[in-house]
Amino acid sequence: MAEKLLTWKEARIAGIVTEAGSSVEYLTGAWRSERPVHDMEQCTHCLICWVYCPDASIIVEDGRWVRFDYDHCKGCGICANVCPVNLKKPHAVTGQMGKVIQMVPEH
User: Fold this and answer.
1) Domain of 69: which CATH number?
2) Who has the most CB within 10 Å: 23, 57, 106, 107?
3) Is 99:86 a contact under the CB 8 Å cutoff?
C-alpha cells in the first residue's frame, strides 16, 4: 500500500533548499498563459526589463538583450510593463504599436 501523503494542514511550514541554484532544474515556463515577445530591431538595450524580471528569464550578452528564457519565464508581464521604449513602427511580432516588449497569449 502506498504511503499516505500529508495534507496541507499536516505539512511543515516553510521549505528547505538543499542546494543553491536548484530552481534551474525546474522548468516553470509551462505555468504561463501569456508570453512576452520582443522587437529586437527597435530595442534600445536599456535592460530595464532585465533588472525587473523576477525569474532572471532575460538573457543578456555583451550588454545587449539576446532572448527570453521561455523555460523559466512565468509570463508575469513585468518586462512589458517596465519597457520604456515606444515603437516608431508596428511591432515585428504582433503588428501592433506600443512597447518593444508585448504580451501575447500562449498557444
Assistant:
1) 3.30.70.20
2) 57
3) yes
